[in-house]
Write a structure and sequence with these properties.
It is a single chain. It contains 7 helices and no strands. By secondary structure, it is mainly α.
């Protein structure tokens, strides 16, 4: 297997790893407000998230940014919770362009946080100087992007099926999906190690 596919696969598995389902939860929360005709917007948001994720890894690899893992592991479920809550409070609002700009900014910021969560592992699996790690990092980012697009397509298909075959309204689908995400992520926050740490 070539080096490209090695790091591409690591990126692919990073997103699809069921043990690290926080990434999947974020993608679900990000995607559920949209339908198939919005695929360009969703693809843009996913790419913005990947850019933020990759930028965080670059900043970490070049030792420009360093944040304690415990804080990042606390912030990741917060980003998921905010995204799901935003869905609940923005259902039916008409200012789509304004909300897309806000969602785009938040998605970039949340991508940075999720990237920092993976930075220590990424640095540990690579040897050499910071510059030696740039190519593997970009290959890894492509794997992440491919996996994210796959998940987004699956969520959009599920949304289409729920609305076409099971006669869910879009509003109901967004409410149920976002409530599910909130129900999974709140225990992650409650059980987070940050509450057991003395600073």
């Amino acid at each position: 297997m070539s080096e490209f596919w090695i790091y591409f696969e690591i990126g692919w598995k990073h997103v699809l790893d069921i043990k690290g389902y926080d990434h999947l939860l974020f993608l679900i929360a990000l995607t559920v407000p949209y339908v198939f005709k919005d695929w360009k917007k969703v693809l843009l948001l996913v790419s913005i998230f990947t850019i933020g994720h990759t930028l965080a890894l670059l900043l970490s690899v070049f030792e420009i940014v360093a944040i304690k893992t415990i804080f990042v592991e606390f912030l990741i479920p917060i980003t998921i919770l905010i995204t799901a809550l935003f869905n609940l409070f923005s259902i039916g609002k008409s200012s789509k362009n304004e909300s897309l700009n806000l969602v785009g900014f938040l998605t970039l910021f949340f991508g940075l946080i999720h990237g920092l969560g993976f930075s220590n592992y990424f640095k540990a699996i690579l040897s050499g100087s910071a510059l030696d790690k740039v190519n593997p990092l970009l290959e890894f980012a492509l794997g992440i992007e491919a996996a994210q697009i796959t998940i987004v397509l699956l969520v959009l298909i599920l949304s289409l099926m729920a609305q076409s075959f099971f006669r869910f309204s879009k509003r109901d689908f967004v409410l149920i999906s976002s409530a599910f995400v909130i129900g999974v992520v709140v225990p992650l926050l409650i059980e987070n190690e940050i509450w057991k740490t003395n600073f």
